[in-house]
Amino acid sequence: MSIEVQNIFYEINNNQILKNVSLTIDTGKICSILGPNGSGKSTLVKVISGDIKPQNGFIFFNDRNLNDISIEDRAKIRSVMSQSQQIFFDFSVREIIEMGWIEENGMYSISDINESLQKVAKECEVFSLLDRRFNNLSGGEQRRVHFARTLIQLYNKIELNNKRYLILDEPTANLDLLHELKLIKKLKAKANEGFGVLIVLHDLNIAYNFSDQIALINNGEILHKGLPDDVISDEILTSIYRMPIKVDKQNKRINYY
Amino acid sequence: MKNLIFRYLNFRQILIINLLFLIVAVSFVFAISIGSYDISLKNYFEGNFSELDNVILKNIRIPRVLLAGFVGASLSVSGACLQGLFRNPLADPGLIGVSSGAALGAAISIVIGSEIFSSDIFAPYIVPFFAILGSVFVILILFIITNGFKNSGITYMLLAGIAINSLAGVGIGILTFISDDSELRGLTFWTMGSFGGVKWTLILPTIILILITIFWTFRFARKLDLIQLGETEAYRLGVNINKLKFNIIISSATIVGLGVSLAGMIGFVGLVIPHIVRLLGGVNHNYLLPASALLGAFLMIIADMISRVIIQPAELPVGLITSAIGAPFFLWLIFKIRKS
């Protein structure tokens, strides 16, 4: 099972944002998208999530065309985490996480929800925050709560795990080193459970060490994709990021200053 | 269904809703017995109830208090829905111009219609009919300029509402200018809001429609919660945003149009009640919508009761009372938002 992105073109006001982008996101693997600012990473995430429609090209989720999948059904096969907006009313952390729970005609009882909520909250280390006001949390704590909400969306129905996807646009922004690493390890565990993970990252070292697939994007085009060791090299990174970058393949380290 | 509504309520919220039920019931009983003519309910149960008591109770008091309760509930629910939909704590049924559209329709029928339909059997239905027509007209305009409620960012709808409000203001102004003394009196009283002099034949269909629409909006409670994360996030969680906007705006406009058509312009209720409800027990809409309906009903019944007794035997328009309380609250709210 996979997400197949085929020959996507997307433009705004005659400005080509994505040019002939093709990509495969397999279940059970982490696929990272890397690239400089303005290269089209976030737009690609939006297209794959179904927020915006490309002018050309197709997206298939498990061989089903995204356009044929209803808005409700999309929420059951993929969850998306991105830079979120300010929330005006004073919700509790518990309520924010609960929003990720997808209702299916009352199929689940209140105790189902509570049980999953507590497990996810413990996994994401937000258990102690559950009764706090969301708006009183720090930026990093808010990210972790949103991450928990993204996870609980795909929490039920374990038999579907190898047909579902997590899509994350820079999930580690605002996180300290410890929580950044924990989040990435959590994603790795999710991939091992069978989920397909698509993630936009800035940190080259994290992408190098934790990805199964890497796609390098620049000016709306995917220039290189494949296994980390095939894609990550001095020449490629130096040309894309326009600064000297050295790769230490033995220690899996990328040095850029 | 019950499971779906109650699943996201905590114990405190269930308690608040039940308490509100109780005080609405108590205030109802209280309000039907007090006024420029006091009716003792004790006499009613003891059997020595005069014919006059009976007529006043059944034909004047009960319909009036019922209407007050339902209009209070509908204004509050639509306020809560619109604040949720636009993610804006300052939203109010007046914001989208529906109230003033209804007011203009009613004003037209009061000033121009009184000569044409004066002796007709449909006479009592003319003003509400035109008021509903006015609110429907405003919804149509909004629908067209927002391309089917699609391009409705907060600012866009707000500006459209301001334009519609001032256009309606111009219309009412012209009508006020050309009206004669008795028409002017009817017009003034109506723009300030009142529950007096409304008959069962009008009230019964209105409250049935209001009741149905309010329960209809409860279905959208969870979607209104999700939209607080932002429209994109809600969409990703499976909410059809355009459909939700359509449903919320249509049902808000319906209940407000109906309420305004019978009771006139009553300001600030839709703005203030949801905020009090949030302060009492939380911000999730599964709680907010029913609790707003109940608190709105309660406060409107009380406000109407005050309007009847404060300058006996005359009556103060209830809209003056709600605005006198609501406007300072609005200022406080702006002050609070600026500080945070």
Descriptors:
heterodimer; A: 257 residues; alpha/beta; six-stranded mixed beta sheet; four-stranded antiparallel beta sheet; 12 strands; B: 340 residues; mainly alpha; ABC transporter involved in vitamin B12 uptake, BtuC
Short recap of the structure:
Chain A is an alpha/beta fold. Chain A contains nine helices and twelve strands. Chain B is mostly helical.
Characterise the protein shown here.
The complex is a heterodimer of chains A (257) and B (340). Chain A is an alpha/beta fold and 257 residues long. Chain A has one domain (2-255): Rossmann fold, CATH 3.40.50. Helix content of chain A is 33%, strand content 26%. Chain A contains nine helices and twelve strands. Chain A has helices at residues 41-49, 71-77, 93-98, 110-123, 139-152, 177-193, 204-210, 228-231, 234-241; strands spanning 2-12, 15-26, 30-34, 56-61, 64-65, 78-81, 165-169, 196-200, 213-218, 221-226, 246-248, 253-255. A six-stranded mixed β-sheet of chain A has the order 6-7-8-3-9-10, with helices on both faces. Chain A starts with a strand and ends with a strand. Chain B is mainly α and 340 residues long. Chain B has one domain (2-339): ABC transporter involved in vitamin B12 uptake, BtuC (Orthogonal Bundle), CATH 1.10.3470.10. Helix content of chain B is 77%, strand content 0%. The longest helix of chain B has 35 residues, at 51-85. The two termini of chain B are 38 Å apart. The relative contact order of chain B is 0.18. The A-B interface holds A 49-51, 71-76, 79-80, 82, 84-85, 87-92, 95-96, 98-100, 102-103, 106, 109-110, 113, 153 and B 1, 3-4, 7-8, 87-89, 222, 225-226, 228-230, 232-233, 235-240, 278, 282-284.
